[in-house]
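Reviewers asked in the last cycle whether our approach scales beyond single polypeptides. To address this, we selected a multi-component target totalling 451 residues and predicted its structure end to end. The input consisted of the following lines:
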Amino acid sequence: MSRTLVSPFYQFCLLLVLSVALLILDNKTDLFQPVRTIGSIVRQPFELGARIQSGIPVAAELFQDKTALQEKSRNLEVENMVLRVQIQQYEAVRQENQRLSRLLSIPAQNPGEFLLANIKTQGAPYNQQIVIDQGFESGVYVGQPAVSDKGVVGQVTEVGFQRSVVMLTSHVTQGLPVQVVRNGLLTIGVGTGIPGQVRLPYLELEADIRVGDELVTSGVGGLFAAGYPVGTVTEVLKDTTLPFLQVSVRTAVNMGYIKNIILLWTSALDQIEESGQEEGDDGE
Amino acid sequence: MASDSTSGKSSEIVMMLTILVGVLLDMLNYHPSIRVMIPNWVLLIVIYWCLVAPGQFSMFVAWGIGLFLDILDLTILGQHALSFAFAALIVSATSSRILNYSLWLQCFFVMMLSLLVIGLELWINRLAFGHELSTLNWQSGIMAGLIWPVVRVILAKVSRIPDLAND
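The resulting structure, written as structure tokens, was:
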């Protein structure tokens, strides 16, 4: 039956060794980073299907009723107006906050620069990665935080020319310093591998946390500025045989419903360094 | 075997085209609620070609296609490659018997093989990340078995090979 000289079993053994070598090299080293960059280019033609698919609703909009469009535009205008008014307040609060933090000599955190990026494709299920249409051409860097209008999305892990990969907070390799809004409790959120789920594995059994608690980024670690919504506690399990509580969190962002994300250039890190220098100067 | 009726060169092109269509289907943006149920299209196509042309469609080709998917799908290099080679090994070793199976048995075989491949990929993922990942994505494996008759008929039309297993 076999037309080849070597039996299929030995062929498979050869491939097995090759695969395991690849797996180990890819997992433990950065050797294949260029392959990833090429991969993001190779992806482009295959995203054609997804692009046509996302074009269908746009085409449908062309045939939409004119009055419906006018209605939509009016609603957006109203929403815009409301947001403008809110932003005025925000500006005042921000300035006051800066004044106060200067008084307390705490580094103030500016929102910094940002960039809108469209989501190209979402990876395979349980992959917890998305591909966006901005790359090092626009200054995206590895480790850059990404948010949406609802809250934290994740961080950039691979950067191509006009394409980057964002690993979601629910990915198993991701950890994020978080804070409970209700009482200021600090801890770390860790991905579970399940879409939209994060857990808090390092809370003691006596920790004050309940179902429904809102979590935001704490700003510890300097990657994310403080205050971006992360999620809501959905389950708190207290097992006295275990050293820690088992807390599940539903992420604020549901990846199924967002089309674009915002990449942040937080100036928080620089400012911490600057204030550190100032303190040093004061000491002298 | 039926594959003798097609000339080598053109059937290889057809094979590659069908694989590319499979990749295209894989890249579509499915709604998250049905995403878990979407079968691995490329795997189904690889299984088909291993069945009807075990000589032409070798394990090495399956491995290469898997590697290509790894690069596209952002998975660890070697994850799909190894599992596809494994699927090809099983299918090509048993192809003559499976071709004589009834349609329902074939569906069952494809379902079991898909589940095995998904399990293998999950296991590799767990080894790589050292974490408890989510549960087995079994819905996708079941769907692979259910959709097999459709895939088979379409691929038989495309490849102009008489449909296999006339019950």
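The mean pLDDT of chain A is 80. We regard this as preliminary and will revisit it once experimental data from Aim 1 are available.
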